[in-house]
């Protein structure tokens, strides 16, 4: 147990932050792999990784992937030019972990949207160069270690483990384990902001014929006809979707495969909503598209005592 590096989150402070100790314990410097920590914007620690196949950056707040660039490729992950990096605040872009609920809380309007996992510090538990091409990082979050206001929202001791494997593919595995003596239900998503060349020319395939809930139209249930084109605000939860999805922005095709998720969220706020949000950057909505591997809407996960659930996703770029 690596408790010295446990980050106690309270609204405006981070205790025990020590980049030197993180580097002493977890950095990697070899011929093929580099992994180190630095103090990022807002004083939030960021891990930077490079190997023969890719480079990446991960913020320790939220175990939030900020960047993944396969060798010779533009970053696949979009972060807004106007993103703010502050303790306890979510980042507009990257790969936020929505947990233990997706979207608004179902009966507490004042609870944070998409839960709290994305705005608390996670503990690094391991870094390893599996080969010259593959680097693996593990994080942990134990809810009973979090501050009281969060435990009031989520009183069930739960452990989250997050394994990130960086290579020419990016693999994310999120494992939730119930340590409480009650059964509970979670909703979750890996809310990935993909960088696209021009969202208006981007097609999403793999969801043809699937039913979805349209958040822009009072959550009406509709059926997808053909590929998804983005030409206005899109905010949808696609139901019963286990299959691969492909994002094709005419420059590259991103293949998304997943396990432990039966819903897929597709979101682009388009111009009007983006302008209201204020942190999407100048015309930022044109270069981003969220395709989220989720357990959302009626696709929730019921966890009995001692049980675990794993949500896994793999991203791969194909020509
Ligand atoms: O996943 C889509 C969504 O739930 C949208 O409704 C939109 O609001 C977006 O996430 C961003 O949420 P956030 O809480 O990060 O502003």
What is this structure, in a nutshell?
This protein has 319 residues and is mainly beta. It is 7% helix and 42% strand.
Gyration radius from CA atoms, angstroms: 19 Å
Main structural class:
mainly beta
Could you name the CATH class? Mainly Beta
Question: What compounds sit in this structure?
Answer: 6-O-phosphono-beta-D-tagatofuranose
The domain tally reads: 1
Low-confidence stretches: 1-17
The mean pLDDT is 94
Largest sheet: 9 strands, antiparallel
Give the count of helical stretches. Answer: 3
CATH topology: Beta-galactosidase, Chain A, domain 5
First-to-last CA distance: 43 Å
Q: How is the largest sheet built, in terms of strand order?
A: 9-10-11-12-26-22-21-16-19
Give the SSE order as H and E letters.
EEHEEEEEEEEHEEEEEEEEEEEEEHEEE
Describe the fold and architecture:
A hairpin with a 3-residue loop joins β5 (45-50) and β6 (54-59). The protein is built from three helices and 26 strands. The chain has one domain: Beta-galactosidase, Chain A, domain 5 (Distorted Sandwich), CATH 2.70.98. A nine-stranded antiparallel beta sheet has the order 9-10-11-12-26-22-21-16-19, with no helix packed on it. Strands 8, 14, 15, 17, 18, 20, 23 and 24 form an eight-stranded antiparallel beta sheet that branches. It has a five-stranded antiparallel beta sheet with strand order 3-4-5-6-7. The radius of gyration is 19 Å and the shape is globular. Residues 1-17 have low confidence and may be disordered. The chain is mainly beta and 319 residues long. The structure holds 6-O-phosphono-beta-D-tagatofuranose.
